[in-house]
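Below is how a single chain appears once it has passed through the pipeline. First comes the sequence as given, then the structure the pipeline wrote out for it. We keep one example in the README because the format questions we get most often are answered faster by looking than by reading.
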Amino acid sequence: LTTKKKHWQWFNALSFGLVPFNAGGCNVAEALTEVERMKAACLLYASRSKGWSDKVGLFVHVFGHNTVNSLHVHILDMSELGPSYWKQEFKNCPLDAVIKVLKEELIAQDGPQ
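Resulting structure:
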């Protein structure tokens, strides 16, 4: 899965929500919403694809470990992994980890409730 958003902020999960609005970016809450929408789209795709198990892995490659300079989510059936997965495993940052960190950033910005 990829995005139509062309701003450089979306190239690297490390920069989601960190680019000021006046520089074309978005805040952490908007970034979290976008990433959650990406996750939902990926899971919908996998659920409607014939032959896929319910063990779906969603991964991004963070800058420094990427070979494609554009945001995309790898959608994997974790019950059908081949040797390429194990060779490239170190590159895979779970999309849920990105969501977790964005949520932590929101809490840190808002302070304790």
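The CA atoms of residues 84 and 96 lie 22 Å apart.

See the next section for the split statistics.
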